[in-house]
UniProtKB/TrEMBL annotation:
Residues 17-76 form the HTH tetR-type domain. It comes from the Bacteria. This is Transcriptional regulator, TetR family. GO terms for molecular function: DNA-binding transcription factor activity; transcription cis-regulatory region binding. InterPro entries: Homeodomain-like_sf (IPR009057), HTH-type_TetR-like_transc_reg (IPR050109), HTH_TetR (IPR001647), Tet_transcr_reg_TetR-rel_C_sf (IPR036271). It holds the Pfam family TetR_N. Residues 39-58 bind DNA. It comes from Ferrimonas marina. Transmembrane segments: none annotated. Keywords: DNA-binding, Transcription, Transcription regulation.
């Protein structure tokens, strides 16, 4: 009778210690492959560690989810606040849709989260892009909500039609939004 060997905190056969960065990278890889955030057990199995080892780096699955989604969103376009605002917003929107396309389960994961860390990344980037307009909070918030809801709808349509909807499909509607902003 054999006893199953327990996996401990370091990946087997590796001289590298387990770290937040390694865990986040593996979680992002699994998200890209599987279309959903992996369970802590599946992630630990991929890293060849005991699932409890992950709790040394993340308090719970919600903390891991936030770290993964924030890490992914930090890769979207970083607008230049001194650039031409329409081009900066357009590039930000394209970048965001490309990210959501590469990670199909990301949007659903973010929408189910109770924290707003990932949303804050996008909001901060949008504020940077719109710096030249000096929008008041009362003007910015409805624009932010409209744009986020529109982009999320496009992302869902893209998931339903893989390869059939290019990110450039948002350009004409963005132009309409831009005209509204410049006429205010």
């Amino acid at each position: 009778m054999s006893v199953k060997q327990k996996k401990r905190g370091r990946p087997a056969g590796s001289s590298k210690a387990l770290s937040k960065l390694i865990i986040l990278q593996q979680a992002k890889n699994l998200l890209a492959e599987q279309g959903k955030i992996p369970t802590l057990r599946a992630l630990a199995a991929e890293l060849n560690v005991d699932p409890m080892a992950l709790y040394h780096y993340f308090a719970n699955k919600a903390a891991l989810l936030e770290a993964v989604t924030v890490s992914l969103l930090e890769a979207i376009y970083q607008p230049n606040p001194e650039g031409q605002w329409q081009a900066e917003v357009r590039q930000l929107c394209h970048s965001y849709l490309e990210l959501l396309s590469r990670y199909p389960g990301l949007l659903e994961t973010m929408l189910k989260m109770s924290t707003d860390g990932p949303a804050q990344v996008f909001i901060a980037r949008l504020e940077q892009a719109l710096t030249p307009l000096a929008l008041a909070k009362v003007e910015f918030e409805p624009l932010r909500d409209l744009l986020a809801d529109y982009l999320h709808g496009v992302a869902l349509a893209m998931q339903c039609n893989p390869g059939g909807i290019p990110v450039g499909c948002v350009d004409a509607p963005l132009d309409l939004i831009f005209r509204g902003l410049t006429s205010r």
